[in-house]
Fold this sequence. Notes:
The complex is a heterodimer. Chain A is an alpha+beta fold. Chain A is 35% helix and 22% strand. Chain A folds into two domains: 45 residues, no CATH class; 141 residues, Immunoglobulin-like (Sandwich), CATH 2.60.40. Chain B is globular.
Amino acid sequence: MTDDPTPENMLAAEYALGLLEGEELLAARGREASDTAFAAEVAWWQNRLAPLLDEVDQQTPREEVWQRIAAELDGASGDAEIISLNARLRRWKMATGVAAAAAVAAVSLFVLTPSVTAPPVGRATPEAPLAASIPIADTDLRIAVTYLPDREELLVSASGLTADGVHDHELWLVPQSEDTPLLSLGVIAPGEERRVSLDSATAAEMADGSALLLTREPLGGKPADANAGPVVAEGRMQII
Amino acid sequence: MRPASSDAREKLRAAMARLAGGDRQALEEIYRSTSAKLFGICLRILKDEKEAEDALQDVYINLWRRADRYDPERASPISWLATFARNRAVDRLRVGKVRGGGVAEEEAAPVADRAPLADSLMIDAERDARVHSCLETLDEKPRKAIRTAFFGGQTYAQIAEADGVPLGTMKSWVRRGLQKLKTCMERGE
């Protein structure tokens, strides 16, 4: 065995086994989140190694453990809302074949962060949440947008993105009425999930099928006296 | 008639699907059929009953909150759950909540203990996954190190220290072992 060269590229296996610590562990976690090929390799190892766990003897936990789980779930507020939204996103993902991971990841943040604005009353907007997943050209990355009509709030997740230091990207809603100008949904915060409260005029234009555009702008977003920059990506809101 | 274990697998699969739709009853069903296996795994890694109970609680709470993470196309429910439990337990070791057991895998698990229970919910239903035979093809040192890492949740530094060899030597053994294991397992695909 000593004649074999030491393989350099066993990081996925080392990570799956749990051999890493410190910076190496953090780096592997980061790659798992952003690099789909690496994540698939980690999953390959986990699946292949899992049968070894059959060797471990079963041990019945004390009944108290289940009671603690049940109590924690009963006490948690907002859970039902998260579950129902997660289920909707999941069905949407299956129906459209779109990877909605980022949109799903955002849901708990969305629901659990207290809202400052009271839900509006008596408006004729659809109550079902809307979602869009906007692919970024030539990359595996997507911007996930989720909209909750009853809160008039938008959650924009750009988790995989990094800033280039020269440009910002601005998200726009294409209004349903043709002579209305594009409505800004704000500048994308790379690597972040950002929650945006929409004003009523913008919220009124948000509907099933609404088109979203992403434009490249100078840092800070479109200057007031300039036209919007080039469209780099687009997507469409759908009821989920 | 199907064997009991196959029946249990189907029930678990169905419960996982209901869980994704937010069915709370499904969580209890999953707990009842899998908690002994998952608790055994947590206990093996954490070597402390209290810590293992906390880890187990954490596993099912997370399962409920993020039921969408399970992808039926990628793994069987019991395989995924067991891996999830193992990873959560190892995470607990890493954040320093627990002092690692430091017991070598061969001492912690005598060979006689390795026969799995016949009627349990098996990850490897037919006991024919290549990992078992492929591990046997490795030299003793890398095999022991890989088993210690897997079942004990030990890092490179810990297994090197326990074995009294330099870190670089241990990494080299393990990486070669993993490469060989990979080649062997891929042959079966």
